UniProtKB/TrEMBL annotation:
Gene3D superfamilies: 3.60.21.10, 5'-Nucleotidase, C-terminal domain. PROSITE patterns: 5_NUCLEOTIDASE_2, TAT. It catalyses: a nucleoside 2',3'-cyclic phosphate + H2O = a nucleoside 3'-phosphate + H(+); a ribonucleoside 3'-phosphate + H2O = a ribonucleoside + phosphate. This is Bifunctional metallophosphatase/5'-nucleotidase. Residues 384-568 form the 5'-Nucleotidase C-terminal domain. It comes from the Bacteria. The keyword Transcription does not apply. SUPFAM superfamilies: 5'-nucleotidase (syn. UDP-sugar hydrolase), C-terminal domain, Metallo-dependent phosphatases.
Length: 617
């Protein structure tokens, strides 16, 4: 389908003028390795491989990843332009300007543009067209409109593509002018690919034999855990390395001179699910090392910057890996130098660099294609739904009890308790977990909008209820408390001195609470991890090991995300597939007044050998 505006905008000066492009790109350069650290369109250095005729041509792969529904440089939760401490800008429109400038400098015929997944989830813009005005009903997804305006050649599926169900994903797929690829998303019964596993693009350079570029898509197998309710019985997700061993030889047999992998999988070789799956979550480096005939990998999923090379263990050839951060903050540029070896094209050198999107203006072709949807969503998220008697901020939630997290836990526990009426578990106490994953979130005193409430919960997780024993609750809290570094004394400490031990992300630290001020516990950071939870009590009495509790928990955590104990095998007593963010919005809409005094109380604290710890922020 075509989503270009009916009357194309004239080419802006920053794209048409070579001098302006050079000026902007000089500001946008981030860094890289190899030949491509030279900015602008200088010819590739002459590299002659044995058995070649010396002809060298350049193929460029431009890439984005983890766009997460960001088109404009806009923070919907702040109702303002996006900004952060590192002066990053975000959005497809910014990334598009980099991409189109590089095409103009290098020659569009020699460039391919790819994405490595996580596209249709992450902002109110994406949520609106999945749930409020769903694309399954005929609307056009703004990410489809934006990416078509950029002119991508292919994109890999990310795990978040499955958040809204397969029907929404299929509707999105149909709206794209390019293929969605995933070689390891297969039919539950037959094992056949459920999406196109790969595509071969023919690059035709002037006066040269065409180059056949095979593009293979792969997604982290964690979809089977994180979106089990959407995929179980329908789709399976074999391992990345395991499936690539099958598919790369097929690509080569189909005539691919070059093999590029777009992999929604990080490089650190680690997994967040413990032993819940036999596959590796972040397998891109292992893929490069173990599967021959891959020339370059566009990396996604881990939201970091990567520019590196890895030697394949079997062939010794260097494989280029590049990950361009997330949300459109960076654009990857991977340059492959090719020569004819016995009449066939072969990569003889490679290099990569990253471009910073904050140096360029937004591409008007992209903003024009999405402007109407953006304005509609602004009206949606800024609608007033109630009032709050006292401002609530999540800024300090990772190291002290706050009303903001208490609110989330209260709403979750309230929903589960109500649903248990008339069931065998109706008499059990209900607790809840929530993570402080958005330190910027706050609900103001006075009028409250959808945007304010949604900012407390930036993911599209759904709510479940599971049953744990008292001993299992303590195990769970011990796992959560490993987020803190071991320190002695009571401070004052800065937040960085006591939190994020072993680089544990904030979203893997859970705070437990409930409907009332019934659950209390201390976290003793002077003790080693595994021995930190003290004074664990419910209704004033020490929690017995055999006591039973219903825990309100999100689908990511219950499915094994973060590797918390007991949750994947615990009995599930509630699962209505309702998004937690929408529950918060619905609760505020129904009650009209958010009064922290009705649900917030000190439930937990940090201590050092029993004495309260002071953290200054």
């Amino acid at each position: 389908m075509s989503t270009d505006p009916a009357t194309p905008a004239p080419t802006p000066d920053f794209l048409a003028s070579a001098a302006t492009r050079r000026q902007l790109l000089s500001l946008a350069a981030v860094g890289g390795i190899g030949l491509a650290t030279v900015r602008a369109a200088a010819p590739a250095a002459a590299v002659t491989a044995p058995g070649t005729n010396g002809e060298t041509v350049r193929l460029t792969v431009l890439g984005t990843t983890d766009l997460h529904g960001n088109v404009f440089n806009w923070d919907y939760f702040k109702n303002a332009e996006y900004t952060d401490s590192k002066n990053n800008d975000i959005g497809v429109a910014k990334a598009s300007s980099i991409i189109k400038m590089r095409r103009a400098d290098l020659g569009a015929a020699s460039c391919l543009t790819l994405d490595a997944g996580d596209t249709i989830q992450g902002t109110p813009l994406a949520y609106y067209y999945a749930k409020i005005d769903p694309i399954t009903g005929g609307s056009t997804h703004p990410m489809a409109a934006a990416m078509n305006a950029v002119g991508y050649d292919a994109a890999a599926l990310g795990n978040h593509e499955f958040n809204y169900g397969i029907d929404t994903l299929r509707a999105f797929e149909k709206q794209l002018d390019f293929p969605l690829l995933s070689a390891n998303t297969v039919d539950w019964d037959t094992g056949s690919p459920a999406f196109r596993p790969w595509v071969i693009k023919t690059v035709r350079l002037p006066d040269q034999k065409p180059i056949k570029v095979g593009i293979l898509g792969l997604v982290t197998p964690g979809v089977a855990i994180w979106d089990r309710a959407n995929v179980e019985g329908r789709l399976k997700f074999p391992g990345i390395v395991e499936q690539a061993r099958i598919m790369v030889p097929r690509l080569k047999a189909a005539g691919a001179d070059v093999v590029i992998v777009s992999a929604h999988s990080g490089t650190n070789g680690q997994s967040s699910w413990g032993d819940a799956l036999p596959y590796v979550e972040n397998a891109s480096r292992i893929l490069a090392e173990q599967v021959p005939d891959i020339d370059a990998i566009l990396v996604g999923h881990s939201h970091v910057e990567v520019v590196t090379k890895v030697a394949n263990a079997q062939t010794g050839r260097q494989v280029l890996l590049c990950e361009p951060l997330y949300w459109g903050m960076r654009v990857a540029e991977m340059t492959l130098s090719l020569q004819k070896v016995r009449g066939q094209w072969q990569v003889v050198d490679s290099s990569a660099q990253l471009w910073n999107a904050n140096a360029v203006p937004e591409d008007p072709a992209v903003t024009g294609a999405v402007r109407a949807a953006h304005e509609k969503v602004l009206g949606y998220v800024n609608g007033v739904i109630g009032t709050c008697t006292r401002a609530m901020s999540a800024a300090t939630s990772r190291y002290e009890d706050t009303p903001a997290i208490d609110f989330i836990n209260h709403v979750q526990a309230d929903a589960v308790k109500a649903a248990l009426t008339g069931t065998p578990e109706a008499g059990l106490p209900v607790l809840s977990i929530a993570a402080p994953f958005n330190a910027l979130a706050s609900i103001p005193e006075g009028d409250v909008t959808i945007r304010d409430v949604a900012g407390l919960y930036i993911y599209d997780n759904t709510l479940l209820g599971i049953v744990l024993t008292g001993a299992q609750v303590k195990d769970y809290l011990e796992k959560s408390a490993s987020y803190f570094k071991q320190v002695s004394g009571t401070g004052p400490f800065t937040a960085d001195q006591v939190t994020r031990a072993n680089n544990t992300p904030d979203y893997n630290y859970d705070i437990m609470g409930g409907l009332d001020a019934d659950l209390t516990y201390d976290i003793d950071v002077a003790q080693a991890a595994g021995s930190r939870i003290v004074n664990l009590a419910y209704a004033g009495s020490t929690v017995a090991s055999d006591a039973r509790f219903v825990i309100a928990i999100n689908n990511y955590r219950q499915s094994g995300g973060g590797g918390f104990p007991h949750v994947t095998t615990a009995p599930v007593v509630y699962n209505r597939q309702i998004e937690i963010r929408q529950m918060l919005i619905d609760w505020a809409t129904a009650h009209q007044v958010i009064d922290p005094a009705t649900f917030s109380s000190p439930d937990w604290r940090l201590v050092s050998n029993g004495s309260p710890v002071t953290v200054t922020g």
